[in-house]
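Exercise 7. Predict the structure of Beta-galactosidase from Nonomuraea recticatena.
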Amino acid sequence: MIVYGGDWNPEQWPEETWSEDVVLMREAGVTRVSVGIFAWSHLEPEEGRYDFAWFDRILDLLGEHGIEACLATPTAAPPPWFGHTYPEALPVDRDGRRVHHGSRQGFCPSSPIYRDRALRIAEKVADRYRDHEAVVMWHVHNEYGCHNARCYCDASAEAFRAWLCERYQSLDALNDAWGTAFWSQRYSDWAQILPPRITSFLTNPAHELDFKRFSSDALVSLYRAERALLGPKPATTNLMAGAHWDMDCWSFAEAVDVVATDHYLIGEHPHEDLAFAADYARSLNGGRPWLLMEHSTSAVNWQGLNLAKDPGELRRNSLAHLARGADAIMFFQWRQSRAGAEKWHSAMLPHAGTDTKIWRETVALGAELKSLRDVSGSTVAADVAILLDHDSVWAQDHPAQPTDRLKPVEVIKEWHAALWRAGITCDIARPEHDLSGYRLVVAPSLYLVSDEGAANLENFVAAGGVALVGPYSGIVDPHDRVRLGGYPGAFRDLLGVSVEEFFPLTEPIALAGGGVGRIWSEQARLTTAKALDTYRDGRPAWTRNEWGGGTAHYLTTLPADLSPIMARVCEEAGVTPAAQAPPGVEVVRRTHPDGRSYLFAINHTDEDAVVEGVAVPAGDVVVTGP
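Solution. The predicted structure, encoded as tokens:
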């Protein structure tokens, strides 16, 4: 079964609408809803006084109508009494300003007070409903760290010091790792260490990096603490893979029973961003089917310009996620809010009711997903992996860099988009992950890499694989210390190149092969590699080095057009698309272990197309199966 539904927030509505809702859910083909996500102030209207009677009726109503509940712990939005009674538990920003109650996620992740009150309400919910017939899964919290990923208060400072003590064991080890000899920053007492609050000038990069790691770990710790209270039913939390970079999704993926994520369209090429986010979610779940917990039926409410979706776009977006491994297609939210900050966020049941485009498309999608039930459980195989490490992204985000225009996330997404345009489905992997199942591994932006990660890529290539490494990669170790002896540091031998100096660009630079480089260039010397393209002055721009049984390519710039380079390395690695398709037609295959497979052809263009002899009308999706 493909799970279908969305967030249901009945506490926003009079009780007489609840029965209408479940009847309409059945009409739309809804099989599951997430409930209780923002219900803390209704479940515990005053500290220590609980009201579950209304929620009993909600879950009973779902059970009576055969609709599953993904039951949330309501800890993402503490009620007004929490901030009023415990202002010291509210988050503090980098400038020392305490955030006040009035939105959501109004808490410090390291606050012992918040942790105690959150676990108390989570346990109350779990004790009451863990055996309810409608509850099939737990939805812990909601979008961890979306608005409070890092807190700089005194409680956070104390917790940060404890985290550092465990990590380094001694101040000598910390001082060495952080390079505190620079600018007279050597610590002589743990109490001297604070979060990287506002300073007179640049902060210590290693200090910043460890605080980002600590802050992510604090959120994972909160998840694990709630999860421990819930019992044997599976539990997850909705990540924002590919959109929210302040927490380490790999760490969360290790903690959840199944990966769930939210996705909303952004950027100039939103369908390419959707593909990246879906591939990332699938990879976080180890290649297994994953859950799309939220996306939108039409416009959202939080962008500067909130565009409504064109007819058919709701279906096209949903089936694109399904194609890339989702076994649940869910929306925020079921009934569009009448009041509050998200009243202009679209929903399955819009303000205008059932005589609407959105409702008709919602019902039609529910019926189609039911017809595609046999797709459930199948997986997506990929011959290509893109290396992505949050530590590297966080380290490179420090402002003291050769240029602020070389943005790691943008580069990673650009390389993924180049593969998307070539019709190549790819996984996302950490540098330390098992790479043996891939033919091609690309590292678009891996400024920081561990010795283990670097050796892993070397071994992959030596065993016959093909690698493509982007500029400014392999530069520092996990403490953000430069790897000496010439760049690209950890990858210098693998790539057969030694770089002595970086030359960020103020304008594009011409390449001898006819292309153009952007943003970045390097003064590189070939050691064992050969140049496949150069700058007009003869400096290497694209190199190829034989290493064991494989080859490693390196770019010293960001080509304006990656297509010919991707085509070359894919051909060298023996990587081919799932099917031949015209430009703008996305093709992905899902396969069962018994060999049954489903080919998704998603036409993002205004022109009709043909894929493997099957007509795919403009803007349409065609799924062919066994």
